[in-house]
Design goal:
single chain, Rossmann fold, UDP N-Acetylglucosamine Acyltransferase, domain 1, 365 residues, 33% strand, mainly beta, 2 domains
C-alpha cells in the first residue's frame, strides 16, 4: 500500500487520452489500459488500489475528486461512457461492465456475437459495496448505497439503500422509507405512473422518468413501511401481472396502506370489451380492443397478462381483505385533469358519447 504517487509495479498502458492528476494514487498491481479510441480523465485524489483494473479500448471514463477503486475492482469497456461523481467509494471486487453481449446469432461463435453498449452514471457520494455488479444503462443517484454482492440492472434513486439480485431499493437513508415522517398531508402513491405526473403524489415506476421518485418493481414496495400510505392509485397496471401474480401485488399494496386507506384501481374492462366486440368486431383494430386486451407492446413492460370484470375483481379484492369495493368516477378525483387510461373511451377521446372501456374500482383496507 502507498499513500501517494504511482507505484513502480502499477501498469499504465495508454494509446489514447489518459489524464491522471499528480494526486492520483496507483497501488502495486493496479492496471490502466486505454486504447486509441479510449479516454480516461480522473479527478483529484483518486485512488486505484492493488489489482484493480480499468480497461477502455474504446469509450471513456470521467471521475470527480476523491474517488476510490477498491482492490480487485474491474471496469471493463464502457464504450458508451462511464461517469463517476465525487466522493464515491467503489469497493473491492466490484465489476462495472459497459457491454451487453449478444446471444441470438447461433451461426456465430459467442465471442463474435454483436454487443450493445449503454452509458453508466454514478452520481456524487455513492458507496458501491464489495462484489457488486453494475450493468450498462443504469444511473445510481447521489448518496445511494449499493449492498454487497448486488446485481444492479436498473437505475437506483438518490439516497436509496439498495441490495439484492436484482438490486432493489429496500429503504431510504433517512430510515423511514420513500418519504420522511415529516411529510405534510396524506401520503399518496401513483404506481406504474409512466410519463404521467400527478401533483401531490409520490411516483413509482419500473422506468426512470424525470418525475419518478422511486424506480422499482411496483409489486415489491420494500422501501415503504407497512400501514403508512393513505391512497394508492394504479391505472391500467394490475393487468400487467399474470394470473398467478396479481394477488401477490394486491397483497403488497394492502400491506403499505393504513387501516382505512384506499386502493384506487383502473383496469381494462373485459365486459365492455366483450360487448363491443359482439356489436362490431375488431372494427377499430390495433387502436381499440386489441390494445386494451393485449397491451400496447411498445416495450417489455407493455404487455397484458390478465383480464378482469367487475364481479371477478370485486371478489378477489374482498378475498384479500379489502372492503367497501365500489366504482369511482374519474371526474371526481384529485387527478381528473390527468388524461390516463382510466379515461379510455371508444371512440377514442369521445368522453361524452363514447363507451368507457376502463373498469374503475376502489376499495378500503
Amino acid at each position: 500500500m502507498i499513500s501517494r504517487g504511482i507505484h513502480k509495479d502499477a501498469i499504465i498502458d495508454s494509446e489514447g487520452i489518459c489524464e491522471l492528476p499528480q494526486t492520483t494514487v496507483m497501488e502495486p498491481g493496479s492496471v490502466i489500459h486505454v486504447g486509441r479510441e479510449g479516454r480516461i480523465q480522473l479527478g483529484e485524489r483518486n485512488i486505484i488500489h492493488s489489482n484493480a483494473s480499468i480497461r477502455i479500448a474504446r469509450g471513456w471514463l470521467v471521475t470527480g475528486d476523491d474517488v476510490s477503486f477498491g482492490p480487485g475492482c474491474h471496469i471493463f469497456e464502457p464504450h458508451a461512457g462511464l461517469e463517476i461523481g465525487r466522493d464515491c467509494q467503489i469497493s473491492s471486487g466490484v465489476l462495472i461492465g459497459g457491454l451487453n453481449h449478444g446471444q441470438m446469432r447461433p451461426d456465430l461463435p459467442m465471442r463474435r456475437q454483436p454487443t450493445e453498449s449503454l452509458p453508466i452514471r454514478i452520481e456524487d457520494d455513492v458507496w458501491v459495496g464489495m462484489g457488486a455488479i453494475i450493468h450498462p444503462g443504469v444511473t445510481i443517484g447521489a448518496g445511494a448505497v449499493i449492498g454487497t454482492g448486488s446485481v444492479v440492472t436498473r437505475s437506483i434513486p438518490p439516497n436509496a439503500v439498495a441490495w439484492g439480485s436484482p438490486c432493489r431499493v429496500r429503504r431510504m437513508r433517512n430510515g423511514t422509507g420513500l418519504f420522511s415522517s415529516t411529510t405534510d398531508g396524506p401520503i399518496r402513491l401513483h404506481l406504474g405512473c409512466g410519463s404521467r405526473y400527478i401533483p401531490g403524489f409520490f411516483h413509482l415506476d419500473a422506468q426512470l422518468f424525470p418525475h419518478v421518485d422511486l424506480v422499482t418493481d411496483v409489486a415489491h414496495l420494500d422501501a415503504i413501511p407497512s400501514a403508512t400510505v393513505d391512497l394508492i392509485y394504479a391505472s391500467h397496471l394490475l393487468e400487467h401481472f399474470g394470473r398467478w401474480e396479481f394477488r401477490a401485488a394486491l397483497t403488497e399494496w394492502r400491506r403499505v396502506l393504513k387501516p382505512g386507506g384506499r386502493l384506487r384501481l383502473a383496469v381494462p374492462d373485459f365486459a365492455a370489451c366483450a360487448k363491443l366486440y359482439y356489436e362490431q368486431g375488431l372494427a377499430d383494430g390495433l387502436t381499440g380492443l386489441i390494445g386494451l386486451i393485449c397491451g400496447g407492446q411498445r416495450d417489455s413492460h407493455d404487455f397484458h397478462k390478465m383480464i378482469f370484470d367487475e364481479p371477478f375483481l370485486t371478489r378477489e379484492l374482498q378475498g384479500l381483505g379489502f372492503r367497501q369495493v365500489r366504482r369511482w368516477d374519474w371526474r371526481a378525483t384529485e387527478h381528473t385533469e390527468v388524461d390516463d387510461y382510466s379515461q379510455a373511451y371508444i371512440p377514442h377521446l369521445d368522453k361524452e358519447d363514447g363507451t368507457l372501456m376502463s373498469l374503475n374500482l376502489e376499495a378500503m383496507r
